[in-house]
UniProtKB/TrEMBL annotation:
GO terms for molecular function: alpha,alpha-phosphotrehalase activity; alpha-amylase activity. NCBIfam families: PRK10933.1, trehalose_treC. This is Alpha,alpha-phosphotrehalase. It comes from Pseudolactococcus hodotermopsidis. Coiled coil: none annotated. One of its GO terms (biological process) is trehalose catabolic process. It is an enzyme of class 3 (hydrolase). Residues 10-406 form the Glycosyl hydrolase family 13 catalytic domain. GO terms for cellular component: cytoplasm. Belongs to the glycosyl hydrolase 13 family. Keywords: Glycosidase, Hydrolase.
Length: 535
């Protein structure tokens, strides 16, 4: 598979570029920026859902799988994007939300009107389990006046689909093939490790019931069926599963080539190291030792198990990494470059989230009214219900809200950051300094160009094994890559201080492949310095 030397750029279409003045980004805006993306050097763009949706969860509540939300444009616009992308060597990856569907979808409407064929498309029970929704509250809601309840692991308007029903599976395979026929070369499968629910659903008060529906054995069966019925035939297809609360063992099985399931997996363990007791809606400095241990464990086990990681720091569900892991007030640029080096030189396929390539940071929102995300607004209420003051609750929302990464792409320092001539659906962040016009030939952007190019030129990076290094250091994250006799040591200083370290003897005479500073001072790393040595 060729995905090992590819770099994928994630676009949140709603916030990328608005060409109509509606305040919402659109497909024509993406077409307008294809040359910018080609200059960055990326190979594929992953678009968050662009299908008709009530937008309760910003498109992850789909009401029609095989159409384009008119807010984003037309099917002709989408077909033009595919064609224009291919001219520049940029393929398109679409987001497949196959675990659940909007209650405004025709299937749910028919089901709730009494159509028993469609009632079996959903997970209905007379007796709900004690599971909780990932967006807070009960995971079950009354199914009309039938006296039954339907399962919704996310928002109450997102009804989980019954994958045990072959008719559901066939409908899902048809959806993927519809978009493959349009020329879509990649698919990101939303929370796909939740589709393997068993017939008997058990109560489980531990961890809100996650163990009862996550990574269940049937998931692998369904993925192998999906693979065989659609993309499995395409040598060039790239597929990635978003795996919620998953394990390394399952991610090896999901992504090992001989299993014919997916190309690779997203896991989120490294983005929970600033969670108190695993709880998202809390505040604490990130735990570097835990972060490093997770990277090493996942890196080595996936390498040994022939699995394949999707490597990322940012996406549309996470606050920006610079705010979480870097002293960005003093070292935004060097910190952004170090974060990039720490994944782009590692083993897996790197994802660049829009704005990461210019060092975008969280907005400085000052009131709860500026946050629109359903998960954040639910959390704010839950935090206050748990006894937090409005100020304490708001301070937590400010650090963890998904809106932090969903603010409009910052193209220039004009009004609305050049994103829209209308009122943006979400207010822009701090774009006076941090914008493409200002940063495009700056250190961060050119460093990303270099990293992306290296992945294509160096099999040591795209194919090499992964081994941990500097495990004992309290500020350096280091690893060794190896491929057909060549070795690379990558050291990343996660500190805002100069850090002492001993270069491993075998690399003392090595050549420096990449350095985020102009110089390397023997045995010390500058604040947030990354250096790669090869022998
Ligand atoms: O996210 C899955 C998921 O669990 C997220 O809710 C994430 O774990 C959480 O926001 C982190 O705090 C996927 C999509 O990426 C997300 O945007 C959707 O809201 C969700 O599924 C439901 O489709």
């Amino acid at each position: 598979m060729t995905f090992k030397n590819k770099v994928i750029y994630q676009i949140y279409p709603k916030s990328f570029l608005d060409t109509t003045g509606s305040g919402v980004g659109d497909i024509c805006g993406i077409i307008k920026k294809l040359d910018y993306l080609a200059e960055l050097g990326i190979d594929m763009i992953w678009l968050n859902p662009i299908y008709p949706s009530p937008q309760r969860d910003n498109g992850y509540d789909i009401s029609d799988y095989v159409a384009i939300n008119p807010d984003f444009g037309t099917m002709a616009d989408f077909e033009a994007l595919i064609a224009q992308g291919k001219k520049r060597g940029i393929e398109v990856m679409l987001d497949m939300v196959l675990n659940h569907v909007s209650i405004e979808h025709d299937w749910f409407q028919k089901a709730i009107s009494g159509d028993t064929y469609y009632q079996d498309f959903f997970i209905l029970r007379d007796e709900p389990t004690d599971w909780l929704s990932k967006f807070g509250g009960n995971a079950w809601a009354p199914f009309g006046d039938t006296g039954k309840y339907y399962l919704h692991l996310f928002d109450v308007t997102q009804a989980d689909l019954n994958w045990r029903n072959v008719a559901v599976r066939n409908e899902m395979f048809k959806v993927v093939n519809f978009w493959r026929d349009k020329g879509v070369a990649g698919f990101r499968f939303d929370v796909i490790n939740l589709i393997g629910k068993e017939a008997i659903l058990q109560n489980n008060p531990v961890n809100e019931g996650k163990a009862e529906y996550t990574d269940k054995p049937l998931t692998h069966d369904y993925l192998q069926m999906l693979n065989a019925a659609s993309f499995g035939k395409d040598e060039e297809a790239i597929t990635v599963g978003e795996m919620s609360s998953t394990t390394i063992e399952n991610c090896i099985l999901y992504s090992r080539p001989d299993r014919n399931e997916l190309s690779m997996t997203f896991n989120f363990h490294h983005l929970k190291v600033d969670y108190v007791d695993g709880q998202k809606w809390t505040k604490m400095p990130f735990d570097f030792a835990e972060l490093k241990q997770l990277f090493h464990t996942w890196g080595e086990k996936m390498s040994e198990g022939n699995g394949w990681n999707a490597l990322f720091w940012n996406n549309h569900d996470q606050p920006r990494a610079i705010n979480r892991f870097i002293d960005h007030k003093n070292f935004r640029i060097k910190g952004a470059m170090m974060l990039a080096a720490s994944i782009h030189l590692s083993r897996g396929t790197p994802y660049v989230y829009m704005g990461e390539e210019i060092g975008m940071i969280d907005p400085d929102f000052t009131s709860m009214q500026e946050y629109v995300d359903v998960e954040s607004r639910n959390a704010y209420q839950m935090l206050m219900a748990s006894g937090k003051s409005p100020e304490e609750a708001f301070a937590i929302i400010q650090t963890k809200s998904r809106d932090n990464s969903r603010t409009p792409m910052q193209w220039d320092d004009s009004v609305n950051a050049g994103f829209s001539t209308g009122r943006p659906w979400l207010m822009t962040g701090n774009h006076a300094e941090i914008n493409v016009a200002h940063e495009k030939n700056g250190e961060i952007f050119t460093f990303y160009q270099k990293l992306i190019a290296l992945r294509k030129s160096e099999k040591l990076i795209s194919e090499g094994t992964y081994k941990a290094a500097y495990q004992e250091s309290d500020c350096i994250y280091g690893f060794i890559r190896e491929f057909s006799g060549q070795k690379m040591l990558v050291v990343n200083n996660f500190s805002n201080q100069v850090s002492q370290f001993e270069l491993l003897p075998e690399f003392v005479n090595g050549e420096i492949l990449i350095n985020t500073y102009s110089k390397f001072m023997a045995n010390e790393l500058q604040p947030y310095q990354s250096v790669a040595f090869i022998v």
